Amino acid sequence: MTRGTGAGTGIPAHADVLTVTMNPAVDHTLTVEEPLREGAVARTDDAQFDAGGKGINVSQYLTALGVEAPATGFLGGPFGRMIADALDDDGVARDFVEIDGRTRLNTTVLSPDGEYKINHNGPVVDGADVDALVERVRDRDPDRLVVAGSLPRGIGADTVDRLAEAGPWETAVDMGGAFLDRFDGSYLVCKPNRAELAEATGREIETLEDAASAAAELRERGYRYVLASLGADGALLVSDSGAVHARALPVDVVDTVGAGDAMLSGFLAGLARGESTEDALRTAVVVAARVVSVSGTSVPAFDDVFASRERVTVARV
Ligand SMILES: O=P(O)(O)OC[C@@]1(O)O[C@H](CO)[C@@H](O)[C@@H]1O
What we know:
- The protein has 317 residues and is α/β, with parallel strands linked by helices.
- It is built from ten helices and 14 strands.
- The chain has a ten-stranded mixed sheet with strand order 5-4-1-8-9-10-11-12-13-14, with helices on both faces. Strands 3-2-6-7 form a four-stranded mixed sheet.
- Residues 23, 25, 27, 52-54, 57, 106, 119, 149-150, 257-258, 260-261, 297 line the site of 1-O-phosphono-beta-D-fructofuranose.
- The site of 1-O-phosphono-beta-D-fructofuranose has 16 residues, from β2, α1 and α8.
C-alpha cells in the first residue's frame, strides 16, 4: 500500500527526541565481487534499499534503542514515499513536510577494493517549506532536537539556527565541517568526524591530541559537547571538564555508512537514560560498532548494547 509522505500514524503529541532530516535519501547499497572497471558493466544480485539521511538514521537507531524519536524534514516523489513506507513498517513515527521536489537516491558500492559512495545533492526547497517545517517542530515540542545531514538546495545555515531557536529544546547537529562554525545559536552537541573537525577549525589533525585541541576550539563556538568520531581510533568527547577518549571496539566492518549517526544515537540514548557523559560515550562506541557490522543503514540487533558498554575503555586526553 502506498501512503502519503507527510504525517504517519502514531506520531506522539510530544517527542523526547525529534530528528530533522532536510535532505533524506534512499540508500542504495550494491555489493560487487570484482573491482569496477571503466567501460565494463558490473552486475550483482546483491542490492539493498534503506530509508536514509542522517536524521532518519538517528530516529531508526534511537527507536530500536528504546528512545522515542519521531522523524521530520522534507520528503517528496517516489523515493520520499519509499522512505515514508519504510519508517511506518519499522515503527518509526514520522511527520514530514511534503515537497514538490524529489527526495534523492544515494548509492554505495561495496567492492573488494573499497567502499564508494555517491550522494546526490537533493531537491530544491523553498521558504514556505521551511516555515512549515518550523511549525512541525514547534507542534512536537521535543526535549531534544537533532538536525542532521546536508541541506537541500535553497537552504542555508540560518535555517538550522532558526530551528534550534524556535523553542526551548536542546539541539544536536551533525552536519558538514564547513557549517559547524557558521551557526549563531547555542547547541547541545555536534558530531564531526576527523575530516569535518579539520575543516571546521582549519587545523591538521594527525594525533589524538590534535583532535582534542581542535574539538576544544570548536566547542568554544557554541557547543556544550563536541563528540568527534575517529573511525578505527574510536571517539573523543570534549566538554567543560576536558577531553575523554574512548577506544573503538574490535569489529568486522562491512561498511561505515551510518557509523557517525549511530555514534550520535548511542550518545543521545545514554543521556536520555541518565548515563554519565563518559558512559554515554561508551554507549556511543558500542552502537557505532554494531552499525558498521551490517551493510547500508539497516538497523542491527541492539539487544545487549547498554550492558556491553563496560567493554569500552576510556581515558582522559
Ligand atoms: O549527503 P548527506 O546528507 O551529508 O549524507 C547522507 C548520507 O550519506 O548520510 C547517511 C549516513 O550517515 C546516509 O543514510 C545518507 O546517504
